[in-house]
Design brief:
This protein is 40% helix and 17% strand. The protein is α+β, with helices and mostly antiparallel strands. The strands form 2 sheets. It has a 6-stranded antiparallel sheet with strand order 5-4-3-8-7-6, with helices on both faces. A two-stranded antiparallel ribbon has the order 1-2. 32% of the residues are buried. Pfam families: HTH_IclR, IclR_C. Residues 96-278 form the IclR-ED domain.
Length: 278
């Protein structure tokens, strides 16, 4: 990479920063900041004040050449972060940028709405409760409420685990149709997280059928050898999956009766939470 940085963007002068004057020295710029990335983010930030932006307007606002701004917008357009209006030739937010914004809002919304439900389920079961979201073949955990027992499973906030190895992941997979399922799992072989993890797509499909019949999913040492779990999918009033609520406990405290009782509680909580969404 030359002195100009990526595609020459970093070599452009920047007399006017977004939201502050060019001679504002009150904000320290980190020495390791990448100029090209900074310019692209400042360009996207223009949508905060303008529903549409034109090349010449962005050029003036950012203190960059028209050719540089045009290259940036062309790249963003290729990745569907912006799209060009056919008639005005101005650029507006594209589907990729909109989807990211909606996903962030949805994640924040469900976490805020679900917090009290997680607390109630923790108090009812005495075990640690988690809120997870499906991201393809993985589950991302965005909230947890830990058990108050001395021996307990810990928080999973920020964890990412294979969907087929977790109760929450399987609860959400069970809501997919066959086409969606095949896109996530195109191959027969599945990577195990532990010796107990399901390792074939055909067996996983059978498990999902059982989950649909029963209403909740079970994890018996499949993501962590010493952890058992039960989970139910959270679906809104239109049937869209918003996430999954799972209850985890040391396997020493789990058995078939525990799974039935906690499964019923998880389903009840998931149904109540789902009704909160339009």
């Amino acid at each position: 990479m030359g002195a100009e940085g990526i595609d020459g963007f970093a070599g452009e002068t920047m007399p006017k920063a977004m939201g502050r004057s060019a001679d504002d020295t009150s904000v320290d710029r980190p020495s390791g900041m990448i100029g090209a990335v900074d310019n692209v983010l400042r360009l996207l930030a223009l949508f905060n004040e303008n529903p549409k932006i034109r090349v010449n307007e962005a050029s003036r606002a950012m203190g960059l050449s028209r050719s540089t701004v045009h290259r940036m917008l062309t790249t963003l357009s290729f990745h569907q972060f912006v799209e060009q209006d056919e008639f005005s030739r101005a650029y507006q937010p594209g589907p990729a940028l909109i989807d990211i914004g909606l996903a962030v809002l949805q994640n924040i919304e469900i976490r805020v709405v679900a917090r009290n439900a997680l607390l109630r389920l923790r108090d009812e079961t005495g075990e640690t409760v988690h809120l997870g979201l499906q991201r393809g073949a993985e589950v991302v955990y965005i909230d947890s409420v830990e058990s108050e027992q001395t021996v307990r499973t810990g928080s999973r906030i920020g964890w990412t685990l294979p969907s087929h190895a977790t109760a929450g992941g399987k609860a959400m997979l069970a809501q997919l149709d066959e086409g969606e399922f095949d896109k996530i799992y195109p191959d027969e072989a599945l990577e195990p997280a532990t010796a107990a993890t399901v390792q074939s797509k055909s067996v996983l499909r059978e498990q999902l059928e059982e989950i649909r019949r029963r209403g909740y999913a079970v994890n018996d040492g499949e993501s962590e050898p010493d952890v058992g779990a039960v989970a139910a999918a959270v679906c809104d009033r239109d049937g869209r999956v918003r996430g999954a609520i799972s209850v985890t406990a040391p396997r020493a405290r789990t058995n078939a009766e525990w799974e039935r009782e906690v499964g019923a509680a998880a389903m009840r909580t998931a149904k109540q939470l789902g009704a909160s969404f339009g």
